[in-house]
Specification:
Immunoglobulin-like, TRAPPC13_M, 7-stranded mixed sheet, Trafficking protein particle complex subunit 13, 2 domains, TRAPPC13, TRAPPC13_N, mainly beta, 264 residues
Length: 264
């Protein structure tokens, strides 16, 4: 009986470590086999990602051989909408590295999650022996490439509901209910109304470091006043910032454009 073919071992390998703010627990490194088709889930220690938060990780490229190698990286994220966002492009100088024998190099990736659902991070590593590596077979030749896939889910963290009512001839109140729909305590840092041209806005009262336990709701209100020369019904957007737990991950959320209903 023929023995199974051995798995190809690359002289360059890849490890991924998520960067996050302090929390209770131990970080872990994701290190996987080099099979290009393998789809890998990030370990539990990578934690939850909420829409509006920035997912950051370190790529560690390790040269486990006895000769130097040129390494080029390409990284992208496939969004739940099936579109792709490029994080590193292999043609850029910053994506190219010379990694000496038995050494490693690192690069940081960051992506702000803007859609709820499954995200797939794809990292492509290409390597070859450098052209100035005299006497080495294959030096400066064709690139060898392998690809790793990682998946993580982005869940909604805060939910915003709005209600409008007439205040006077030119002013309208915009009430906002901000609910913590996550499994973590969120500290609400700011909630601001960003008016469009033709409107000015006051808030009463202003938010200052308001903690929200899971399922808690915070209510705030704005007074939007139409400028005398404006006919625009597009009032503006509500922008919210928070921090997960007292010193945890920061996040930002902006609503769509709020429009004045016709009956008002």
């Amino acid at each position: 009986m023929a023995s199974p073919s051995p798995v190809h071992s690359h002289p360059v390998n890849l490890k991924v470590l998520r960067l996050s703010r302090p929390h209770i627990g131990e970080a872990d490194v994701a290190s996987e086999d080099p099979t290009p088709s393998t789809l890998l889930s990030l370990p539990a220690s990578f934690g939850q990602v909420y829409v509006g938060e920035t997912f950051s990780c370190i790529l560690s490229i390790n040269n486990v051989s006895e000769t130097p190698h040129d390494v080029a990286l390409d990284a992208s994220v496939q969004l739940p909408s099936q579109s792709h966002v490029s994080l590193i492009h292999a043609d850029l100088p910053t994506s190219n590295h010379r990694v000496e024998a038995r050494k490693h190099t690192q690069q940081t990736l960051s992506y702000e999650a803007q859609e709820p659902g499954l995200h797939i991070l794809t990292i492509t590593v290409s390597y070859r022996r450098p052209a100035d590596d005299e006497g080495s077979a294959g030096a400066g030749g064709a690139w060898t490439t392998f690809r790793k896939h990682y998946q993580f889910n982005a869940a909604p963290g805060l939910s915003v509901k709005t209600k409008m009512s007439a205040y006077d001839n030119t002013g309208h109140t915009v009430e906002a209910q901000i609910e913590n729909v996550s499994a973590h305590t969120m500290t609400l840092e700011t909630a601001e109304f960003l008016p469009l041209d033709g409107w000015r806005v006051d808030q009463f009262p202003r938010i200052s470091m308001q903690p929200l336990a899971p399922r808690d709701v915070h209510q705030t209100a704005f007074l939007a006043v139409r400028e005398s020369s404006s006919l625009s019904a597009a009032m503006g957007k509500i922008s919210i910032s928070w921090r997960r737990d007292p010193v945890g991950q920061k996040g930002w959320l902006t609503t769509g454009v709020l429009r004045l209903p016709q009956h008002l």
